[in-house]
Amino acid sequence: MLASPYEPVQPIHGQMTPERIAYLGPAGTFTEQALLTQTDLAGLEHVSLPTIQEVLEATDAGAVDVGFAAIENSIEGAVNATLDALAFELDLLIQREVIHPVEMCLLARNDTAIEQIERVVSFPHAAAQCHHYLAKTFGQVEIVAANSTADAARELSENGNGATAVIGTELAATTYGLQLLARHIEDHPENHTRFVAVAREGIPAPTGHDKTSIVTFQRADRPGSLVNILQEFSARSINLTHLQSRPTKRELGDYCFFIELEGHVADERVADCLKNVQAKQALVRFLGSYPAAGEQAETTRGEANEAWGDAERWIDEIRARIR
Amino acid sequence: MLASPYEPVQPIHGQMTPERIAYLGPAGTFTEQALLTQTDLAGLEHVSLPTIQEVLEATDAGAVDVGFAAIENSIEGAVNATLDALAFELDLLIQREVIHPVEMCLLARNDTAIEQIERVVSFPHAAAQCHHYLAKTFGQVEIVAANSTADAARELSENGNGATAVIGTELAATTYGLQLLARHIEDHPENHTRFVAVAREGIPAPTGHDKTSIVTFQRADRPGSLVNILQEFSARSINLTHLQSRPTKRELGDYCFFIELEGHVADERVADCLKNVQAKQALVRFLGSYPAAGEQAETTRGEANEAWGDAERWIDEIRARIR
Amino acid sequence: MLASPYEPVQPIHGQMTPERIAYLGPAGTFTEQALLTQTDLAGLEHVSLPTIQEVLEATDAGAVDVGFAAIENSIEGAVNATLDALAFELDLLIQREVIHPVEMCLLARNDTAIEQIERVVSFPHAAAQCHHYLAKTFGQVEIVAANSTADAARELSENGNGATAVIGTELAATTYGLQLLARHIEDHPENHTRFVAVAREGIPAPTGHDKTSIVTFQRADRPGSLVNILQEFSARSINLTHLQSRPTKRELGDYCFFIELEGHVADERVADCLKNVQAKQALVRFLGSYPAAGEQAETTRGEANEAWGDAERWIDEIRARIR
Amino acid sequence: MLASPYEPVQPIHGQMTPERIAYLGPAGTFTEQALLTQTDLAGLEHVSLPTIQEVLEATDAGAVDVGFAAIENSIEGAVNATLDALAFELDLLIQREVIHPVEMCLLARNDTAIEQIERVVSFPHAAAQCHHYLAKTFGQVEIVAANSTADAARELSENGNGATAVIGTELAATTYGLQLLARHIEDHPENHTRFVAVAREGIPAPTGHDKTSIVTFQRADRPGSLVNILQEFSARSINLTHLQSRPTKRELGDYCFFIELEGHVADERVADCLKNVQAKQALVRFLGSYPAAGEQAETTRGEANEAWGDAERWIDEIRARIR
Fold first, then answer.
1. Same domain, C71 and C196
2. Contacts of residue A144 in chain D, CB cutoff 8 Å?
3. Smallest Cβ distance to C322: which of D266, D272, D308?
4. Terminus of chain B with fewer CB atoms < 10 Å: N or C?
5. C55: CATH
6. Contact residues for C14 (Cβ-Cβ < 8 A; gap 6+)
7. In this predicted model, what pLDDT tens digit does every residue of C182-207 receive, in sequence order?
8. How far is A141 from chain D (nearest CA, A)?
9. Could you give the 3-state DSSP secondary structure of residue D42?
10. Candidate from C140, C190, C247 with C-beta closest to B249
11. Which one of B183, B218, B233 terminates a domain?
């Protein structure tokens, strides 16, 4: 494994322009593919690192300006390496989320016909997610593990032979000069991964369509249960988009909660809510407020709906009567 | 009973100065006594009316600028005539609350010695609240009912004899030329009555030590239970000072809730709470925001305490990082 | 006022048959009228006492087996004398509730024609509740106070003249040999009063249509707010039929809550709820479980409805799989 | 990949003795190691299958009587393959949980000295979890992926050379005739995995120290939020040991919740709670009630503590007064 002998550069807060971005390598991963969908990030200098832990540590240390890492996969669930590093170890702020579909492709050398294939190499989870395609296409086939889908592609490109295919990204085909034998071979075409871009400083200004991520820890002196925490959100009509209990690793039975909510800490309602949770219920660690991926969702608290509009007018009329 | 042939006058909202105030008469009642503690109200033209209903209707009709009526007694509980008129019938706003101790006095003609007394006249509730004093002082004595304590005093002054005493206010002694045979003869010296001054328009500006009164009605299409309503207050750390379920008189089982809370509708937190209750839980009728009687209480949500101060600083530091 | 020199008798718990019942006198009150609707209670020896306090104290002391007192009027609200005695002072259990309509009648001597009447005597609240009838029938008429409607009737019978009418019960006409000049003269014909029969011992067995009354007091060491208490009921789908905050008289700001709920302490669900409130939230004072008045209401937790029936079957099927 | 041509055998419900158990193979996995800690399960015929999905499907199809699979790892988090199969696809009941520490060992052929090692083969997650040991021991070393730790060991045993080590279980050393070069080489010695044994039928009888697993789905017609669901548990003092939101895969924004709680569906309190959640809040899928692993924890609702004991006695005394 590599040590990370980066020279620190200026982090991106203030007016500074970020210059370098780290991601889980090697080239051709799903992570790089997702990163390339972001035109501003695509133009930075890319630093490929072998583990998520190193990507985030390099960002925390200032060796890069931005780190880019998966945080949740719709099949595999939370990426705990990312969550734990953000929650327990480093002091980084989420800048953006990117949701990217997981399209698996079958790649081979340019001289390979599909009938010749005797073994398929890939990251074990990726191979498992193409179970149906492999069974249908090959019946029995040898499945060989690699450290990542991109590793498999690179290895095939460098040392492979015509009896081997790999499962990987379309990007890896381009990167390593392989041909695309088949696309969309995954069992679950709806599978997608959520990535986050993190930095040492700066909370993006609110866009009107934002998310906020926090972790809450029970306070020893204030047993405040989850239901009390959730009531703070519920009473303010703040929608949660993700909730997960997780042991804090301090000791058995010591839990924290990862919570993602709609809204931005710049919103009075969100700020007041977090303040109340912090003061009354639990320690809160703030992981960031950032633009939500995807199209503009339903407005959070139904500002558009009739009952809410009526209530707004009602309270405004009352307050107009204050002398 | 009197009809109320008042000429309407200008209500007090805007810069208008109120000129007339109605109260439950006759002169010498506890209500008048409480009213006289308020120097600005004491200087208005006083209109004595025979029932609370008429006091409030005269205010609603514009015949007087301010109505003054009891709303709660610490022994007898809520004064439903006042609550119901404010909640169901009229459109008035509470301007002020006045909390006044209920001091019962024994009054008699100037030529009466206490040994001569054979009967005590008063409003039945007042006599009941002096049970111990009467038993100790007189053993057996005839208790005679009057329509009010002030009525009893006036009648004694006009037509009474030396064998009669009345239970009433110190003010009634002055008003009707009677002597004070004894003060503080009530069984419960801590007994007090809360009065409200109401007007057709205007919400007093916040003082930092205010109360807000509302009534909530279940919506047919949104069964929102009390617990949901209370969570709105609880989540925002808004203290309730009074809560009472009450049938709406529409039909059996149809309930509303009288709620009094600390804070002013000018406070964002209170306004947001009322707006949410109105939009999500129940119809809300606003009865007023007004200065709370009594000394400055503990600050509502513990703004002064350490946890809250820490939480304020914490959220401020986070928001300072927004680009 | 009378002292109460009763010889204690055996209270009604166990197999003992109650023999004596106390009520708010004199004969002819609404309380006696309601009592007479209960055939078993009507057959006991009746003891008329001058105040609610004495009725309840006589029961507590064992001077009578049953006490009968108003606890709530749909116009006047809670009868705090009864509530406070049950909650703070005595150790009595509610045995039954009786809901009785408040029908006001105009009574006069047999030789009186309605045109002759110059004054109307009654308890002040009763006169106030016949405001519309009196105004329409008499225009201006002198209203004279009495200590109770029954006192007014008795006094008219003994000493009255042909220019006087009283407002009282139909029972008072019979009791005191008066004629019924008019019935249903009350402004609010839907007005009714709820009475309770109390005893020193015994909780009536559940009937399937019961109520339970409690008072909850905040514990100094466990600030448990009302919302937490109500969640205990809400989570168990226990309906509340009455809720009222009330100062405890110990000091300002010290509140308790009168709560009435559907169900019987013999129900596991109610017992578990009360146990949890007692253990976690607040001191609970148990005032009784007793048959609810009125026709069988909607079943409490929607046992009849489809979702609940489905859930019952679902859990039964699961539990049938336990080895 | 293997098809699974099992002959169905009789499932274990009723008095039937289970005969066959499936687990994630090949021999020598952590799963087999955990399974062998259970003496009754260790004695069954073991069926090793290549994926968790196949283990659970074989159980559902009756090809084996018991399936054994990881459900949660303290570092990697929930094993979504297991959770999703139980929640969405199959109809299996959890019979038992087994918590097993994740001890990583460095294995090599018997003729290998540690200085000779040039490459380390393992499942990628296992290698990642030994990052510190590998860096300290080898500095730079080639990391090669395998489909599982046991696959790596088997391959080394069959085809490996003296320059290769594998990371795997102590069991794999025995199974494949390798030597144990080092034990406890994992970065996080507190890491453990929770496994479940599942079957088609039967809920183990309560032991007094049980857990219950459910999944809740929002009902389209009853938006019941998580906070309402949690209040059902909170009000009954039912502790949750795990909570996780998860997309249902039906569509974006459609969430379910995995919930584990202390207690058994045979407990009235748990049954009543689940019934209420099912009737009022959300569709509930029952995944099982089973003995909790580990020593007897703190009693769930503080039955031992003083307040609860007092409350128990208090309610018992009240109920003793029922006639």
1. yes
2. 147
3. D266
4. C
5. 3.40.190.10
6. C201, C202
7. 999 998 888 889 999 999 999 999 99
8. 7
9. helix
10. C190
11. B183
